[in-house]
Amino acid sequence: MTKARLLRLSVVLVSVFMILLIIVYWDNVGTAHFYLHTSFSRPRSPGAITAGEDWEALPDVDEFLAKLLSSSLKQNTSVPRKTEQLLVQGSNKPVVSNLEENVRGYDWSTHKDRNSLDQEKLQVERQRTLREFCANSSFTFPTKERSFDDIPNYELNHLIVDDRHGVIYCYVPKVACTNWKRVMIVLSESLLDQGVPYRNPLDIPREHVHNTSTHLTFNKFWRRYGKFSRHLMKIKLKKYTKFLFVRDPFVRLISAFRSKFELENEDFYRRFAIPMLKLYSNHTNLPTSVSEAFGAGLKVSFSDFIQYLLDPRTEKMAPFNEHWRQVYRLCHPCQIDYDFIGKLETLDEDAAYLLQLLKVDRLLRFPPSYRNRTASSWEDNWFAKIPLAWRQQLYKLYEADFVLFGYPKPENLLKD
């Protein structure tokens, strides 16, 4: 009799312990926030490749945890309301204090004269194109066939997570990523200014925006959650709203070249410009500083840059820098089923629609676009002196980005 009672008592204690463990574990990893964000539905193709398809049993677990954590959720939901009240009070036209932002210049126009886009249909079309080519066995490119679990941890550092609103953003350099990172900082309240979270994205200095310690990324899950990392990634990929913004691949390359090699950038001069000038322009005894080099008229040409990209030695030494690395390598669109695909070419409309879908449009507005944004019409001039064979090789290098995201093949650059 005593043994039976002890057995029953042990079962009860173990059950209580497991429930407490689940509560603590799920609260730490942000499950409470799963119910705070707003997902928006969209058609799914039967062949869609989704990172979270192994977790179809999750709704039952979620239902149990929702009841278990109901009191905790009530407390958490009050925080965003306070935040919302604070952010709505912010200026509709943020004051630009950063010198670099002033130099770049902003377009504050409302673009009311533009034809309104049918955003819902646009998203359906973009996602359909992406899913079809991901499922098309005749269209191949490196890493396409691997699973999400096969992606190395260091390749997941472009996925920024906002647990407060249930959002995952894959940032692509040279595609308005500075301002989207600012938006993620405001939403997640991951950075304070004199003890108060930033309210206007443009108030956040660029050096803080690109500081890797500022953002919670998938790459950091390993240090924070250990062996549970992949499990948590899949749960959040299933539950959260995932988005990215892309750009015409060749125009993105031009933009990267302009910002990193036409402006004085000490780091890029030492890491990339010096090797390019030595390898492709036969320069020796180069200055050690970028200011000296520019003063002497020593600058990397666009032709040098293209040679560097096409040189097989480049990838053998190290993976492409993120500013010219292909989007499919940064964001893994065939392994992650993105809910929203924005484009820089329609940035203002796409950004406004996305913030509305996320139901955060009352909290902030997306910063205005630059007046001097690199234009697609510049491609002919930039590539005029690039040999045809190089242009064709370059297209093959970035073909997956053109095809997956619906950018037309630049036939005028690929023929005599």
TrEMBL record:
Cellular-component GO terms for this entry: Golgi membrane
Enzyme Commission designation: 2.8.2.-
Cellular compartments annotated: Golgi apparatus membrane
Top-level EC class: transferase
Assigned keywords, A-Z: Carbohydrate metabolism, Glycoprotein, Golgi apparatus, Membrane, Signal-anchor, Transferase, Transmembrane, Transmembrane helix
GO MF term list: chondroitin 4-sulfotransferase activity
Family annotation (Pfam families): Sulfotransfer_2
Family, per entry: Belongs to the sulfotransferase 2 family.
GO terms classed as biological process: carbohydrate biosynthetic process; chondroitin sulfate proteoglycan biosynthetic process; dermatan sulfate proteoglycan biosynthetic process
Entry's transmembrane regions: 7-26
Residues of the signal peptide: none
Protein name per UniProt: Carbohydrate sulfotransferase
PANTHER family in the cross-refs: CARBOHYDRATE SULFOTRANSFERASE (PTHR12137), CARBOHYDRATE SULFOTRANSFERASE 12 (PTHR12137:SF4)
Entry keyword Lipid metabolism: no
InterPro entries in the cross-refs: Carb_sulfotrans_8-10, Sulfotransferase
Chief place of localization: Golgi
UniProt membrane topology term: Single-pass type II membrane protein
Source organism per UniProt: Taeniopygia guttata (Zebra finch)
